[in-house]
Amino acid sequence: MTVTLEHTHTGLRLASLAGAVALLAACSAAKVDSSKIHTVGAENFYADVITQIGGSHVDVHAILTNPNTDPHSYESNTTDASAVASADLIVENGLGYDAFMQKLEAASPRAGRTIINAGQVFGKHPGDDPHLWYLPGTMQRIAQLIADELSKRDPANAKEYEANRAKFVVSLAPWMDAIATAKRKYQGTPVAVTEPVFNYTASALGLDIRTPVSFQLAVEEGNDPAPQEVSAVTTLLSTKSVKSFIYNQQTVEPTTARLLDLARKSSVPVIGVYETQPAGMTYAQWMKAEVDAVQRALQSGKSTEKLP
Amino acid sequence: MLADPGVVQALLAGVIVAALCGFVGVFVVMRRQSFAGHAITDVGFTGGAGAPLAGLDPLAGLLAFSVIGSIVMARLGDKIRERDVATGVVLTASLGLGALFLFIQTRYVSQPAALLFGSIFAIRSGVLLTTMVVGAACVIALAILYRPLIFSTVNPETAAARGVPVKFISTAFLLIMGVAVAEAAQLVGVLLTTALLIGPASAAITFSRRVPWAILFAVIFGAVQMTLSIFLAYASYTWPPGGKGWPVSFFLGVLALGTFVIARFFSAGDSRRSESNEA
Amino acid sequence: MIELPYMQNAFIVGALVSIVAGVIGFFVVLRGASFATHALAQIGFAGAAGAVLIGVEPVWGLLAFSLLGAGGMGILSARGSARDAITALVMTAALGTGALFLVLNRTYATDAFSLLFGTIVGISRTQVAATAALAVLSLLTVAAMYRPLLFATVNTEAAHARGIPMQVLSISFLACIAIAATTTIPTVGTLLIFALMVAPPAAATLLTDRPWRAIGLGIVLNLVCCWSGIALAFTTGLPVGFLIASFAALVYIGVRVYTTVTAP
């Protein structure tokens, strides 16, 4: 379920807010269809992949859905706990990114439930960059695991799952191509970032991330960045030593806001990336759109603060 | 170091907040309202997080919540004995609302992130200006209330008997404090604000019982601690293990506590006040 | 809803926390230690960050720092005045140290953070058992110091004159809060434990002067807030923390209004 509010009139927003809460209450009371495979995607991009592969044979509950929010401050509610309690298949990111999932799972033990934990699948360890969905190749592997699992539970439709998986992988091709093309042209291009969200893709593009890692972590954790680092990043922007400024437009705290102002003023093209999947886009479209934004920024100096 | 505009701005903001907090803090400490002084920053942030949900400006929400919070705290806690609980209840309600706002925005709309540590080296000049204006207004308001406020702080019964509107003064004070503190916290974070509000003032009071002197000392202590913390934070970049700037909030937290403990130690001989020794 | 294991766990842990918070909360209210309670719960974060830094289980850091904070507050406020100021200063120094730990750590400290966001709908059976054990332990500790603590709280001068070791008592009580708070934070979160330790027990002390009755009433009010909050969260999908905290605050304000209106 994704409900997004536009930045319009106060009254309208209040009304839709009340509507959203009512809708939510209705959702939690709704009965689950027992003929379907119950699945949970801890983040909406995993839920999207489950939906694309399972089609009408699965019902999918996404927990982190809003592209305008910070997952680190997420608090579980009973709707999520119920969805986890009745799930046959759970796909989660792991690496502490969605620690609430492990809590919800432990609270509702269920025999025969399958959990796909992306961090474990890729052999990562706590302390590694958790934004695995930005790593090209992640979703192909996760899609395979989802398709295998669904086929095992519902062999009658195994062919359909496999076909959907293949279709999904094909849908990623334009994104992978875009990465390959951009990499050839822009390898080694210096860029600045605020948080580590986009770093896996940035590395795949061969971009040279000039922001100190400790600065990125300070911003992500809401801590004080060191003055020398603030000054270094400021200089990168004011002297236009970087070709683009990539920021997480979901958590614009004061440090980011200030650097954003500076980037605009110094006419360094800015790119707002999303931590979770924006409404109205598939995973493949979202990933491709952000690589296109990088391409636009580096080629013609155009900013993309929000995806359309 | 002073060639770095970020550091200069941090010093400017830090000293302004230190002066504001030192001034207000003396009354906060004398009236034993440290808890309220800290809690109101949380209450303010809840308002700041809630306002965008209703399409309002975060600053409006911050000010509205700190005003409402202060009034409720004052109403519930007019007796000293009740203050601690009154603040606790308001804080509970505000944290609960914060959880609700977070829940709504996690699913539906965006919000400004709350600041525990703040980022004093990355201050936007617009925010600094607002803080200066609001801070100046608070200082003027306190100056107007000055005499009756001191009277009703030092000796509430006599003040009431002489016709000082003690209840009104106490509500007005909490209100002014709430606005000043919430605004300061928005600029430099909750931690620095609480440390600057309580640390310098409580050390200053042990040096001088006369309020104007205590205020002067508090402002000086605060400004010195803040400046020193910023210098140390800057210098620590080269300390082992290297390339890791130690946070300002660490230096200020330790300096504020340290100054107070030392001041307490030196004035140990003459301050045998017979106040109750609970908890 | 009761057939779901996570709801059963939520109700059981809710009850355990209500009882512990009701008993300790009675003393928190009478001793004016709400701020200390809030501060000790907050300080734990610094310990969790420190534990991640040196590679220890975060929960031990949480406990160690909170106990250290209790000791610091107790020792520094030995000479009476400025207790609330000391609480604030110990808290800011500890949190600042936590910020330093985060900086020195410099990997993703997600372990430390996830520890602080306990949620009552995500409690496992093992955690229920652990919480029960801790509840028994903290109740026994309070029982052991009940008489001197009560005496020292309601009649400070007389207790002092009789040679009751006030500072030891005061530090032990703060340590009690620290243990109760930090051991429950990973399961139910900071908000819930604070809400239940202050508002409903304070409401109870407004309704009766007798210690045992106030403790009993505090527990009952806690149970009402906690269970109705959990049940309503289930039917509405609203966050549990919001519901329980609001009920707790409303109970106190309601009782305040009631006692003011009915006062002679």
Features:
heterotrimer; A: 308 residues; alpha/beta; Rossmann fold; four-stranded parallel β-sheet; 12 helices; globular; B: mainly alpha; ABC transporter involved in vitamin B12 uptake, BtuC; 10 helices
- Helical proportion of chain B, percent range: over 70%
Q: What name does CATH use for the topology of chain B?
A: ABC transporter involved in vitamin B12 uptake, BtuC
Largest sheet of chain B: none
Provide the residue-averaged pLDDT of chain A: 84
What pair of chains forms the biggest interface? B-C, 63 and 64 residues
Which residue ranges of chain B are poorly predicted, with pLDDT under 50 across at least 5 consecutive positions?
A: 108-114, 271-279
Strand content of chain A: 5-15%
Structural class of chain B: mainly alpha
> Would you identify the CATH H-level superfamily of the largest domain in chain A?
Nitrogenase molybdenum iron protein domain
What portion of the residues of chain B fall into strands of 2 or more residues? under 5%
Radius of gyration of chain B: 19 Å
Helix content of chain A: 40-55%
Q: For the record, what is the CATH homologous superfamily label of chain B? A: ABC transporter involved in vitamin B12 uptake, BtuC
**Stretches of chain A where pLDDT falls below 50 for ≥5 residues?**
1-31
So what's the CATH class of chain B?
Answer: Mainly Alpha
